[in-house]
Amino acid sequence: MHATRFVARTLAIGFFLVKQGLRFWLVWLGLVLTLRPKARRQEWFAACVLALFRDLGATFIKVGQIMSTRPDLLPPHIIHALETLQDNVGPFPFSEVQRTISAELGRPLGELFAEFSPTPIASASVAQVHKARLESGRIVAVKIKRPKIDAIVEFDLLAMRLFAQILELAPSLRLLAPVETVAEFGRGIRMQLDFTLEADNNRRFQRLFEGDRDVLFPGLVDELCTRSVLVMDFIEGKKVLAWVREQDARPDRPASSDDARKRLAQIGFRVLLKMIFEDGFVHADLHPGNIFITADERVAILDLGLVGELDATHRGAFARYFAAWASGDGKTMARLMSEMSPSREIPNYPAFETAVSEFVARWYGKRLGEVEVSKVFFDMMGILRRHRVRVNATFTLVNIAIAVTEGIGKQLDPDVDLMATALPFFARHDFFTAAAPPPPPGQNGVHRTA
Fold first, then answer.
1. Domain ranges of the chain
2. Which of 150, 225, 251, 356 is the most exposed place for a label (fewest CB within 10 A)?
3. d(CA 416, CA 410)
4. Is 236 exposed, middle or buried (0-12, 13-18, 19+ CB in 10 A)?
5. Which residues are catalytic?
């Protein structure tokens, strides 16, 4: 039965690949014949990739979302398309919700909750969320994993792994490490399939931010949390960008509103810097949909299933990377990135070092207020792609978190300056005085790591 289902799923994947492939080539040919610019052809290719992921369903939607956090592997037009993936594949039946809760918690839904809304408030590729009330009166959000999603994910990941093994037969694609990349994406998805991991992440974030009254993580109902069910406080609030739009729409916006926006932007940067450089424990899915503003203007952070961890060595290296950039030291930046790379080799290390030095020259000397971290970030990711340099996945996730937070921060306060906020934070730590790592081993411009 498993073999039959796998073959059927593989055939379905093949069908959608052929369908979108033919669609792409037919329109692309028309674009070429009508002399449309390269940017338009790239836009069409990205649209076809996006449609393919939507056709392929839940697992691939989640993979697409994770891929959208890897601009070191994919060009900007693909990244921007994948960022628009709607994490919504339709709700699953309420009967399955009841069955899962009963099986996981050992009691029927009616005995566990005083009220339970049968209509989900969110329906995603891995789970859906319902609003409920406990007998104590506590209002909660109940996250329930999709039925059979574990088996579906394993089938899909196996098919991806086989496809990656085929791609690796081509020498030019082997440098991209497709098998290792699929395995990396697989680890990210599996982390989000086990709600006990998300619960552990939640508890850890609450401990780390225990003394911060401006930041909120949803409290858990521990006795009702399992691998497939997560029960937590229902956060009353608005998504951060909806809150911004609401403030902008006020015809008589008071000065206090601007003050609140500036304060929230500073809170966001402070939280990010603490996660990266102080705790080494970073929310790896930090997009605007997971950040809420409560009625008392606190920042609530949700969906904690995917995190990145940085040990003291990598936190120091990451801080020295920014210090090298601030001082215009492209050689040190290149060396630090190579040291943090899981790649076995960099084909032409001197050319990579030169490209990084030219990158520094493009941005060095600009006033801090003129620098948009997201633009700088995508510029650097382009260098990594061109020179086939794979960086540590957590390093990329941290960069994404910085770029996203900077984007949200500037919508809250256009004058906010991430680097100006970061410098006093760095001054309180000894990252910059730590010993620099040794130069990359290897000869003839080839860098090798264990």
1. 236-450
2. 251
3. 6
4. exposed
5. 285
